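Can you make up a polypeptide sequence alongside its tokenized fold?
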Amino acid sequence: MKAALVVPELASDISSNLDTIMAELSRAAESGARLILFPEATLTGLVNNGDPGHDLPLGQSIPGPATERIGAMCGRLDVWAALGLLERDASALYDSAVLIDSRGRIHMRYRRIQPQWHGKEADPNVYRQGSEAESVATPFGTVSFLICGDLFDDAILARVRALEPDLVLFPFARCFSTDVDPQKQWEETEQQEYTRRVRLLGAQTLMTNYLAGRDLNGGAFGGAFVVKGDGKVTHAWPLSRSGILFADIPAAG
């Protein structure tokens, strides 16, 4: 099965980012991808600031106009798509991800369990977490989600490991807080920690991060990686560059 891990360059405009998703879906499908993964908070970037007046309008309903448009494209292209997005449910906001099948239906919705996507002082009545780790059957095996900081929580990792997924989808959003060479910093320190956590998880993991400038809440350095359950990186997309990483993923079983 051919997978595509998209590293989009995000703008501050939701409609522009949605157009980017649609274009990258088409481009990935034309190259033969059957599963297409986008990063965390792909429609907006992780730009929440703790002010509900600013943050709630960033959230999308699930299902809603954005997922319906993406689903219709998945149906036309006969592909599966997974993406992270800020989800609004009435007056609550979640850091969520959805897996949309090739008929355009939401096959799985996951809400990030680990809370550090928002500040410690954020109103808990607005900024909420999920509670369920789960897996679903797909044509390419049993699939689970983790989002960003979930990977670094031992309890969450153990719960997902117990599900014995064939594939873990890992949309994330990361930047470096100091003025460093992102690629050098990643290769010398960060990558080892991410791959160590995947090794503890014990499942092949697809991970992708968006690219954004510092004006988008500090930015993000991009990058995409396929990591085997033993922690070995088999495919990598360089940091600081938008594009698509293609990878042939062995069939489950």
